[in-house]
């Protein structure tokens, strides 16, 4: 990173009006705040004074470099001030200071920023450079002078840095639903790259398809590639590049670490036909990697199945608007909606689930076997459970068949992929499923019967559990497990669990939005501003809007979220709310059963969360300001 990336036209004062040390600090701090680099000017100023109390930063030769590293800085920066008359700054040589470079470093300032700041001190040792800074007529001329001098210095030390070349990374993000985590991880990586002084391009694999797709030219010039995804991503294209794989949550919670670790990641080697890649993706290895792989493969199936459930479920629900309230007969348009949503879209749910689980495990050769196994599960009434079994069975069978035929020469790889693997994969999967379908159908039927016979009290307990699970990790494995259970129940014809799950998922962002609105002293200005967006996120059933608040204060926020979500889920079950649409938030409430009481359940849960946050969180003014001196103990 170069100094001129931290020093800009907006952070330059060519003619200081201050005539004292305190006045300089006040004026330069105000300039930084005006440029948008501070989130708490008073705390930053306190940190500067704390540093000055240790020893003056007036280094002599007419130069002062006041500096502070504090969380009061929102974006690292340098502000320059010049006084031709000179100001008494308690400099080490007891002479007036003319050139002031105030450095604002964020609490998490990285090595790249610190190197640039250190380089500034070195440049100021040159007398001719200081004289030039005293005479430049404009902000642009000052920036040009700094850039020219720094380029000369870098040319001696690092020709690549001097040419302006910066590390260039590629990233791919994707989550099972492709709605929130995908884009939050992309934004996290972009922000971290800017902070570290890197260049990055991020491809998102969201619910609306691939956006900002990586090109061959991008891949050619990339220094490393990061995949932050919980769904399958095609990796053969990254052959020969350092490739770092991580869950999508890592892109949200620790993007800087991903960027710092990526250059040292293993170099990816693409395998012909995806053999080595598929074997690796299967998760054969340690128990920990197998568990992570199981989740990834399952979520790959769920994410591809979801559009069929969402679209089909909403169409089925809408069809009831065209039912005659007296005779109960469905109108012609209602019949069309029901046929499209139920007889067709819902028909593909289990086969698509199984097909994409197998595809995630064994690449394209596993897809056909998984689809066939899933269709057998659907036709045999083995349902969602049967589809999961069929998908994993097909995927690992195809991997085994691939290894069994590994003796075939590379010249016959195409025949193996197109003929042998699908043929034997479909046969072995179908043969085993032929005998498994009946017992799995009995298990599925038993589960549905047990849930259907539940008394109200037990149903409420189930709602409390499912609702609370939605708030534990807000889009992570526990959240997705609860959601997958709700989808399974929809396939089985039970629509109350998914309503409780949706209520539990809406409460965390809505509860935080209410808390930031009515208990403002508990939150910073930035959190209050962010809290307003949670009204929209919560209403849209996007639980992930609560993640930044939970990450900042997990011990107080997460229990508050879980409590509110559990209450909402339990009340939803108690009120008898049911939904054939598994997503959509407030937009599908009108087509649910008990819509008014369902809204009441969500509001009560949100109020519980907001109330607990008001009780558990401390007022912001009780938290010591960043960089401020610790309170001194009184002595007798």
Commentary on this structure:
With 636 residues, the protein is an alpha/beta fold. Helices cover 59% and strands 10% of the residues. The chain is built from 24 helices and eleven strands. Strands 1, 2, 3, 4, 5 and 6 form a six-stranded mixed beta sheet that branches. Strand 2 and strand 3 (63-64) form a beta hairpin. Helix 15 runs antiparallel to helix 16 (383-404). The chain is flat, with a radius of gyration of 30 Å. The protein starts with 6 loop residues before the first strand and ends in a 20-residue tail after the last helix.
What would the keywords be for this entry?
636 residues; alpha/beta; 6-stranded mixed sheet; 5-stranded mixed sheet; disordered C terminus
């Amino acid at each position: 990173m170069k100094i001129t990336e931290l020093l800009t036209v907006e952070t330059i004062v060519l003619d200081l009006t201050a005539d004292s040390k305190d006045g300089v600090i006040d004026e330069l701090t105000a300039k930084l705040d005006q440029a948008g680099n501070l989130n708490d000017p008073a705390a930053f100023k306190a940190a500067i004074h704390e540093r000055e109390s240790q020893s003056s930063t007036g280094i002599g030769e007419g130069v002062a470099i006041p500096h502070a590293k504090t969380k009061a800085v929102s974006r690292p920066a340098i502000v320059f001030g010049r006084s031709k008359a000179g100001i008494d700054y308690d400099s080490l040589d007891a002479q007036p200071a003319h050139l002031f470079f105030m450095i604002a470093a964020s609490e998490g300032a990285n090595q790249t920023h610190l190197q640039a700041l250190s380089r500034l001190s070195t440049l100021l040792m040159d007398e001719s450079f200081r004289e030039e800074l005293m005479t430049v007529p404009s902000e642009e001329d000052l920036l040009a002078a700094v850039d020219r001098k720094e380029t000369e210095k870098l040319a001696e030390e690092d020709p690549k840095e001097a040419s302006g070349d910066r590390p260039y990374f590629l990233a791919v993000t994707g989550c099972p639903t492709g709605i929130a985590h995908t884009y939050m991880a992309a934004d996290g990586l972009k922000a971290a790259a800017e902070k570290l002084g890197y260049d990055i391009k991020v491809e998102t694999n969201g619910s609306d398809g691939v956006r900002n797709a990586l090109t061959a030219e991008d891949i050619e010039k990339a220094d490393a590639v990061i995949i932050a995804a919980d769904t399958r991503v095609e990796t053969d294209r990254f052959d020969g590049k350092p490739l770092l794989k991580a869950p999508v949550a890592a892109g949200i919670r620790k993007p800087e670490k991903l960027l710092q670790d990526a250059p040292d990641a293993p170099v990816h080697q693409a395998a012909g036909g995806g053999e080595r890649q598929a074997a690796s993706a299967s998760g054969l290895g340690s128990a920990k990697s197998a568990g992570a792989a199981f989740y990834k493969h399952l979520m790959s199936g769920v994410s591809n199945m979801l559009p069929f459930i969402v679209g089909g479920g909403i169409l089925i629900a809408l069809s009831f608007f065209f039912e005659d309230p007296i005779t109960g007969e469905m109108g012609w348009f209602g019949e069309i909606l029901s046929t499209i949503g139920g007889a067709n879209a819902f028909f593909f749910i289990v086969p698509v689930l199984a097909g994409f689980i197998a595809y995630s495990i064994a690449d394209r050769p596993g897809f056909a076997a998984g689809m066939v196994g899933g269709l057998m599960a659907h036709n045999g009434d083995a349902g969602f459970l049967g589809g999961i079994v069929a998908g994993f069975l097909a995927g690992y069978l195809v991997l085994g068949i691939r290894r069994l035929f590994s003796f075939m020469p590379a010249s016959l790889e195409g025949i193996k992929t197109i003929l042998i693997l699908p043929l034997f994969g479909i046969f072995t999967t179908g043969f085993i499923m032929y005998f498994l379908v009946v017992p799995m159908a009995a298990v599925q039927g038993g589960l549905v019967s047990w849930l259907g016979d539940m008394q109200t009290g037990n149903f409420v307990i189930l709602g409390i559990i499912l609702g609370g699970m939605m708030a534990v990790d807000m889009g992570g494995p526990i959240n997705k497990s609860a959601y997958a259970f709700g989808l399974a129940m929809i396939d089985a014809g039970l629509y109350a669990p998914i309503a409780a799950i949706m209520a539990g998922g809406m409460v965390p962002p809505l509860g935080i939005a209410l808390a930031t609105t009515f208990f403002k002293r508990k939150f910073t200005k930035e959190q209050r501003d962010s809290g307003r967006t949670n009204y929209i996120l919560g209403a849209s059933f996007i639980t992930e809007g609560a993640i930044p608040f939970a990450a900042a204060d997990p011990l107080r926020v997460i229990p508050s979220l879980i409590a509110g979500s559990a209450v909402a889920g339990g009340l939803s079950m108690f009120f008898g709310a049911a939904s054939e649409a598994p997503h959509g938030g407030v937009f599908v409430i009108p087509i649910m059963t008990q819509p008014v009481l369902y809204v009441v359940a969500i509001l009560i849960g949100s109020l519980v969360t907001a109330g607990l946050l008001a009780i558990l969180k401390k007022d912001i003014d009780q938290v010591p300001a960043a960089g401020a001196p610790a309170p001194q103990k009184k002595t007798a």
